[in-house]
Amino acid sequence: MTLLQAIVLAVVQGLTELLPVSSSAHLVLVPALLGWDEPPIAYAVAVHVGTALALCVYFRRDIGALLLGTGRWLLRRAASDEQAAADRENARLVGLLLLATVPAGVVGVPLEQLVGSVFNSPAAVGAFLLGTALILFVSGRLSRGEAGRRAVTWKDALGIGVAQAVALFPGISRSGATIGTGLALGLEAGTAVRFAFLMSIPVVLGGGLVEVHHLAGAAPPVRELWLYALGAVVAGACAWVSIVLVFGAVRRGKLGWYALYCALVGSAALAVSLFGAYVR
């Protein structure tokens, strides 16, 4: 893998993992368009780790409050009634985040082969990108912006979890599907984005762990370790930028621009595939 390939793929991973445009689609289409081989598994792990670290650092206060509050609530160690109420709410949110991961876990294993087969089809990825465009367009129309509800219910969590399960297919953006579902269910813009991103942390880490499972005998050459480290840093920096962009777009009601982008890329992928002119 060359320096150019490492940087391009890290930028693609870091930006598209969290922007509502589907990282899986871009990681299929970009190498195919440029005629590149699939990146080494170890490199996929590196850029996943970089993206996950960016999420953890950006939401470090939220994560700390959730963990400490839940721990105090379980041990009944609150110093005041006000703190006890805050701890109870943090514990409730942790429970909802766990609930939201259930649908993907339930359908992920049965659909593993089907999802894997789609990764080899740019035409299918293009079609799913059009689905993402539709999700973003509809959710943008249904969003109540800052006037929505700030409290997430168990029904919201389950609905967002189902959206995440659907996003297993390359081309369906996980952030687009989960944020869009939250907005459509009436959540306030910031609440929908925050819940979706917090829920994505174990998923992104899990993506890296899944790749680690296949790492036996595929460790990178020592002379290329700096390239993998660079990829992780670049992916993390781009992920940070994408978090800021998504918060801004949702709060300003600008998801339509991402819907348009997905529609254009999806249509182009379908057209090129159907006319047999796909660059390899």
Task: Describe what this molecule looks like in 3D.
The chain has 280 residues and is an all-alpha fold. It has one domain (3-274). The protein is built from twelve helices and no strands. The mean pLDDT is 84.
Topology summary:
Blueprint: H1 3-16, H2 23-34, H3 41-58, H4 60-75, H5 81-108, H6 112-118, H7 122-142, H8 154-166, H9 174-184, H10 189-213, H11 225-251, H12 255-274
Helix content: over 70%
If you compute it from the alpha carbons, what radius of gyration comes out, rounded to the nearest whole angstrom?
19 Å
Low-pLDDT parts are none
User: What is the molecular shape?
Assistant: globular
The share of residues in extended strands comes to: under 5%
C-alpha termini separation: 17 Å
Mean pLDDT: 84
Structural domains: how many: 1
**Beta strands, count:** 0
| Helix/strand order | HHHHHHHHHHHH
Given helix and strand content, the structural type is mainly alpha
Largest sheet, strands/sense/barrel: none
Q: What is the number of helical segments per DSSP (H or I, 4+ residues)?
A: 12
Record keyword descriptors for this entry.
single chain; 280 residues; mainly alpha; 12 helices; 76% helix
Put the structure in a nutshell:
This protein has 12 helices and no strands. By secondary structure, the chain is mostly helical.
